[in-house]
Amino acid sequence: MSSVVHDPMPFAPTESQLTVAYSVCRGITRSQAKNFYYGFLVLPKSKRQALSAVYAFMRRCDDIADDPALPAHERRQKLDAWLDQFHAAQAGNPTDDAILLALTDAQRRFGIPAGLLDALAFGTAMDVEQSPEETPASSLQIQYRSFEDLERYCYNVASVVGLVCIRIFGYNDPAAEPLAEKCGLAFQLTNIIRDVKEDAAVGRVYLPGKDLAEFGITPEEIAAGIDVARVRPLLELEANRAFENYRAADELIPMIAEDSQPALWVLATIYRSLLEKIVRLNYDVFTRRVALSTREKLLILGKGFAKRLL
Predict the structure, then answer these.
(1) What are phi and psi of 203, to 5 degrees?
(2) pLDDT digits (tens, 9 = 90+) for 85-118
């Protein structure tokens, strides 16, 4: 009599394990996501939890990729090992990592394609691949030659985030996808403008080489603290590109599930307001770190809650 060999049942976390896992992700999001967290607050609980899990996963990837204590090759190895753990959890193998428990649950609940989550990590790895080993500011390298090259980078680190978010928000019209990609691009361009000095200090210049050349600016000048008047036209060019892409948010909001529309409005308004603040300060991102105050973000959040109640 032949025996039947059954495949082992995939690991299924208990409800209490998931509660703890999502709580850990929520804590990471609350402490680290200075802007995203406010958008999450106006979401229904299940969607808020899922986005917190996605953010915590991205945060772990970023922390590994940006670890200053490790050389680039060790960061790549550590990131590969983390992704191996993620893929094992996706395949139904047991894990006691809270982030992976929550993320794999969110992926199943909202039908997030595995390829998008892999792309999130791939985008993080791009910075590791580009990162110079202890490169001094005097030998800075331009990361991207053209704006089209920069767009491809932004797709992997930000537009993919938009595609994941709308899976959680809920949508039916495929036209929502390119709009979500544009929103991610706008958010990332805003971050690049705000962080241009800090990024140059660690050997990363994201402003396109062709744009730098057009305005006669070198990466070394940016790292050393260029005169704002000289760099303002360049930053204005990138800001105008971001503002153009922010228009996609206005088109996208009505396309997603009604219970998620206030969240996207809050996120887009916070990031667009940050860029508008940079403009009001004449693009002086060198003598200060420009950010919205807690009061400014709470005012936007309050309007978001009002939209949810309407």
Answers:
(1) 90, 15
(2) 999 999 889 999 999 999 999 999 999 998 999 8
